[in-house]
């Protein structure tokens, strides 16, 4: 049976007030053995998605990482690229990120123009993503590489208006990210405003280090929670955070 598109899965989460958990894997930080172990943990925890990518990806084994993971797991692999050119036909979908929170034209549309023929030819499911970098309290790789100021953490109205603009410009989903290694994750206040003010799926990541924060972010309105760096120190957190996300019930 053909799997439902990733985008339709995201839309269903929003429509049904369900929650999903994605594990972010940076190809630069893993080898085949680590990938196999991560797949085992993700399978046991019933993780919904694996996001694969990073701001740099200085190694050239993205394909190898995805194939190694798929050898051990049926969990969908979604590309979360540092640039639109980071492609692999072995993935299930691509988050085609446009940095709508910044004013760098290269990350808003420039790189996409260059990468469009390769993306089109890849055959991947392409999900137009309004990417918003939120100030996490410390400089992060994504803020440095983007040459763009993040949205201030205490300005939820700016985040809301940015997300609304992204939705009206035709983005399929919004992704709010405090960045890997963020000191402060995106606040529930900001998440709630954006979730209530838009009608497209909301993904939130960056700085989430424990199950309680993941739970609160879901209750605030995030449809998908993404965690990456925290697992490098304690891989067993995957089970705790997965359980917390699955336990969320939303009342209208």
Core attributes:
252 residues, alpha/beta, 8-stranded parallel β-barrel, 10 helices, 8 strands
Written description of the protein model:
By secondary structure, the protein is an alpha/beta fold. The protein has a single domain, classed as Alpha-Beta Barrel (TIM Barrel), CATH 3.20.20.390. The chain is 42% helix and 17% strand. The protein is built from ten helices and eight strands. Strand 2 (49-52), helix 3 (62-72) and strand 3 form a beta-alpha-beta unit. Helix 2 (32-45) packs parallel to helix 10, helix 6 runs parallel beside helix 7 and helix 8 packs parallel to helix 10. The longest helix is centred in the middle third of the chain and has 18 residues, at 105-122. The protein is globular, with a radius of gyration of 17 Å. The N and C termini lie far apart (34 Å). The relative contact order is 0.16. The model has no long low-confidence stretch (mean pLDDT 92).
Quick structural summary:
With 252 residues, the protein is α/β, with parallel strands linked by helices.
Distance between the termini: 34 Å
Oligomer: single chain
Q: Assign a percent range to the helix content.
A: 40-55%
Mean pLDDT: 92
Topology:
Elements: H1 6-16, E1 20-25, H2 32-45, E2 49-52, H3 62-72, E3 77-79, E4 93-99, H4 105-122, E5 125-133, H5 141-146, H6 156-168, E6 173-177, H7 188-197, E7 202-205, H8 211-220, E8 224-227, H9 230-233, H10 237-246
Parallel strand pairs: 1-2, 1-8, 2-3, 3-4, 4-5, 5-6, 6-7, 7-8
């Amino acid at each position: 049976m053909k799997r439902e598109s990733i985008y339709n899965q995201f839309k269903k989460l929003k429509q049904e007030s369900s929650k999903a958990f994605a594990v972010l894997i940076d190809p630069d930080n893993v080898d085949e053995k680590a990938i196999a172990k991560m797949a085992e943990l993700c399978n046991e925890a019933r993780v919904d998605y694996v996001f694969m990518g990073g701001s740099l990806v200085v190694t050239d084994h993205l394909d190898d990482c995805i194939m190694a993971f798929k050898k051990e797991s049926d969990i969908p692999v979604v590309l979360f690229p540092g640039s639109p050119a980071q492609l692999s036909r072995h993935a299930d979908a691509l988050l085609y990120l446009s940095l709508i929170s910044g004013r760098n034209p290269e990350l808003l549309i420039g790189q996409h123009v260059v990468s469009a023929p390769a993306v089109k030819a890849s055959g991947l499911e392409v999900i137009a993503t309004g990417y918003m970098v939120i100030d996490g309290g410390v400089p992060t790789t994504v803020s440095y590489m983007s040459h763009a100021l993040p949205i201030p953490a205490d300005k939820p109205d700016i985040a809301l208006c940015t997300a609304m603009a992204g939705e009206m410009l035709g983005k399929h989903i919004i992704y709010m990210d405090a960045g890997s290694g963020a000191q402060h994750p995106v606040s529930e206040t900001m998440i709630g405003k954006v979730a209530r003010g838009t009608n497209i799926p909301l993904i939130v990541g960056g700085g989430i280090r424990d199950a309680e924060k993941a739970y609160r972010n879901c209750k605030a309105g995030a449809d998908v929670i993404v965690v990456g760096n925290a697992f490098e120190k304690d891989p067993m957190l995957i089970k705790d955070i997965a359980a917390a996300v699955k336990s969320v019930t939303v009342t209208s």
